[in-house]
Amino acid sequence: MNEFKISAEDFDLELTMTCGQTFCWHRIEGELYGEGNSKFYTFRNGEPLIVEQQDDKLQVRTNLSEDEVLNALGLNEDLESVFSGFPEDERLEKAREELWGLRIVQDEFFPCLISYLCSPQMRIPRIKEMHNKMAREYGEIREVDGNELLRFPTQEELFEATEEELRELGVGYRAKYIVETLDILQEGFDHSELDSMNYEDAREHMKRLYGVGDKVADCVLLFSKNFHEAYPLDTWALQAVEKHYPEHHSEDYDEASRNLRDYFGENSGYAQEYIFHAARNDIIDV
DNA sequence: CCCCAGGCACCTC
DNA sequence: GAGGTGCATGGG
Predict the structure, then answer these.
(1) Among all residues of A, which ones are annotated catalytic?
(2) A253 CA – B12 C1', rounded, Å
(3) Which is the most buried residue in A6, A62, A117, A203, by most CB within 10 A?
(4) Beta carbon of A175 within 7 Å of strand B?
(5) Helix axes A268-280, A235-244, angle to 10 degrees
(6) Is there contact between A257 and strand B, defined as CB under 7 Å from any strand atom?
(7) Which residues have CB under 8 Å from A138's CB, separation 6+?
(8) Which residues pair with A149 in a beta bridge?
(9) Per DSSP, what are the bridge partners of residue A54?
(10) CB–CB of A138/A55 below 8 Å?
């Protein structure tokens, strides 16, 4: 594997990996949502990618290109200009101070989708457990530098899983979401078609997948398809909106989503991440 | 034992 | 299209 450094200003690797947006990255030595070192890995196109932060540089081991690494970590984005595009906003400003360096990753579509299919009525650490169990059972354990790295299964590999087997892994009623969605994917659902769509069409297209509603569609579009205007509205996010942005709140998902995208603009997904994480960490109250 | 968790599909009306 | 309901599993 190649080894190189890339500059990573305005970037907090630890925060980005552990804030709950991604289930596709893993901590080497330790649990992702627990204690451990500050070295993380994932796979892209079956290639391992290992990253460690050293101040404002990243130490990288991979055969992927530097561009692919930058893209995976959301580093090909100027964080300052993302924030300068937001309206003046007290809570966002506070979240910015506390969480500066948090970036939106770009995971691979398939593992991202399957993780979020598991997310309904589930706590974040347990979604991660499910992701890891599927990786162990249907993916690959690859040894790199004496570490056992988990590669999530490909679409074809996971297609072999039955609903019953998945239930035995503990994913509950979400097993049906996974097998039904895999059928639709195998029948020719091509996620690259999303790339040429506008956001609202893309969200509707995503909802053709079984188990994908507005919220899951938004997460997958935001964290794997570069739709930074997507503003995932889960129970936390919606509570925060109701309390702090009552003028944008609505019980209707589409309406609230439109209000928030109108208010925060083309990078409203970044606003969501900062506000969501701040709310969950008592930086701003809900 | 009860409650709820980063919702969703499906059924009424 | 709006509103109600069942859903697997584990932890508080």
Answers:
(1) 215
(2) 22
(3) A117
(4) no
(5) 90
(6) no
(7) A153, A157, A158, A160, A161
(8) A142
(9) A57
(10) no
Q: What CA–CA distance (Å, rounded) separates A80 from A100? A: 10
> Whose structure tokens read 């101040």?
A55
Tell me if A155 sits within 8 A of A186, measured CB to CB: yes
Per-residue confidence band for A286, with pLDDT thresholds at 50, 70 and 90: low
For the full predicted model, state whether its pTM sits above 0.90. Answer: yes
Per residue in A85-124, pLDDT (tens digit) is 999 999 999 999 999 999 999 999 999 999 999 999 999 9
- Burial letters A260-274, b for 16+ CB under 10 A, else e: bbebbbebbbbbbbb
Contact between the CB of A139 and strand B at under 7 Å: no
H-state helical runs in A9-168: 13-18, 66-73, 79-84, 90-99, 109-117, 124-138, 155-159, 163-168
Residue with tokens 């599927």: A134
- Please name the amino acid found at residue A237: A
pLDDT digits (tens, 9 = 90+) for A8-67: 999 999 999 999 999 999 999 999 999 899 999 999 999 999 999 999 999 999 999 999
N residues, chain A: 286
Residue (of A194, A275, A282, A173) closest to A233 by Cα position: A275
